[in-house]
Amino acid sequence: MVDVDTPPNFSRLPEPFIGALRELARTRRLLVALDFDGTLAPEVDAPEHARALPEARAAVLRLNDMPNTRVALVSGRALDSLIAVSDLPDSVLLVGSHGIELRLDNPGDSVTLNAIEFERIDLLGEVLGEVAKSFDEVWLEEKPAGFALHTRLASDHNSRVAHLVARSETAAELDDLTIRSGKNVLEFSVRSTTKGEAVQHLRAYTNATAVFYAGDDVTDEDAFAALSADDVGLKSGLGSTLANFRVGGPIDVARAINLLADLREGDVHEQ
Fold first, then answer.
1. Which of 21, 47, 49, 227 could hold 231 in an S-S bridge, CB 3.0 to 4.6 Å?
2. Distances (CA, A) of 112 to 1, 40, 109, 163, 218
3. Where are the beta strands (DSSP E) in 177-219?
4. Are 257 and 32 contacting, i.e. CB atoms less than 8 angstroms apart?
């Protein structure tokens, strides 16, 4: 029996967005690409404690089991970290380190750095390690092609100064670094890739006829920029964005992808 006094989960989503999802659900081959932190999972102080909301994880699993539908997580996290916190089947495609690391259907896909890049990483680690030690509650996360300087727990003053010092000190020692600003994090990499390039790669890899992408951070804007007219981009949270739709946060993202799964069910996408 349907409880008519209880609105459906998607009732809080904007009507134009619901209409866009209806159209998207009819596409022949759908790629659902999702950021993790701040999108599927609420932000937490300790990155290793992050977990997707149960509603979001359930929707991901539903979509992943559908024919002609692939699901991918596209994250700035190192791949090992993403595997640990997402806890999803191997059939879910994973992109870590903003596109540097891949877990596709071939387990052999991985990042391969050359000797010069390894030397640059060692020097980068020394420089950023000194910066991190100079400020309270600032810490360094090692990644396959660089490091992330985390300042979430630091004071606003220490966070700003740590970022300025890190930029200055690394510029004095190394050139041609890729530097990405995120929420309370500054990432340095010796190799340049973006989430936009990752989405383009996934689109071709899956032969997708349309893409749904959801993300919350500055680095997700590269992915939104890579979307086409037939795709749907969803911004989670505040901030300027190129996405054509926005929701308040992870709980609304969970509602959105559950609705997409509802609309995708049936045989319309198998025609």
1. 227
2. 56, 29, 9, 28, 26
3. 178-182, 185-189, 210-215
4. yes
The answer to whether 217 and 183 are in contact (CB under 8 A) is yes
Encoding tokens for residue 179? 């530097």
Q: What is the pLDDT of residues 217-265, one digit of tens each?
A: 999 999 999 999 999 999 999 999 999 999 999 999 999 999 999 999 9
CA atoms of 195 and 212, how far apart (whole Å): 14
161-193: b (≥16 Cβ within 10 Å) or e: bbbebbbeebeeeeeebbebebeebbbbbbbeb
Domain ranges in the chain?
9-110+195-270, 115-189
| pLDDT at residue 270 tops 70 | no
pLDDT above 80 (res 8): no
CATH superfamily of 9-110+195-270: HAD superfamily/HAD-like (3.40.50.1000)
The token duo for 202 is 């996934």
- Residue 175 DSSP SS3: coil
Please state which of the ranges 91-100, 101-110, 160-169 shows the lowest mean pLDDT: 101-110
**Please, what is the average pLDDT of the chain?**
90
Query: Beta strands 101-103 and 93-96: pairing type?
Result: antiparallel
Q: What Cα–Cα distance (Å) separates residue 265 from each residue in 26, 201, 221, 269?
A: 10, 26, 29, 8
- Report the SS3 class of residue 255: helix
**What is the value of pTM for the model shown?**
0.81
Residue 266: DSSP 8-state: S
pLDDT computed for residue 6 by the predictor:
42
